[in-house]
Design brief:
CATH topology: Rossmann fold
Strand order of the largest sheet: 3-2-1-4-5
Shape: globular
CATH class: Alpha Beta
Number of domains: 1
Helix content: 40-55%
Strand content: 5-15%
CATH architecture: 3-Layer(aba) Sandwich
Order of helices and strands: EHEHHHEHHEHE
Structural class: alpha/beta
Radius of gyration: 15 Å
Number of helices: 7
Largest sheet: 5 strands, parallel
Distance between the termini: 23 Å
Length: 141
Amino acid sequence: MTVALIDDQLLGAVLRGSTPRALRRSDFATTGYWYVRLCQAVLAAADRRGVLSGPFADLPEGLRSRAIAAALELPEEIDLLSLRHLAPDIGRLRPRHALNILGMEALAAAIRLQAEVVLSTSSPRLEAALAAEQCGCRILG
């Protein structure tokens, strides 16, 4: 089965039970930074609505509680690589790519997992780095 390395918006969709049709036959992984951004947004959903928090806030109470619980205790079937494993890869990749740490983690994880990166919105620098490293990338949005 194909591993899809999904960004924070797509991770939120999966955790809310709204997995995009194009990803239904994939195993999922995400990065630590994408997961952190989603957790921050979900926990701040009552204070402000944004791209990540709004879809959680819009759910009926029972579904919202389950989705938030899934976000706060990431299901085991969604892989999340430790920086313990990715840091050396990031160090080796850094001289070749002008990415921020979020992009570097995604690039290193994609290589390590041999995953296709699936983004909710275009990220030209990350897409170029993925292409240079012969990693697949797709935009669902």
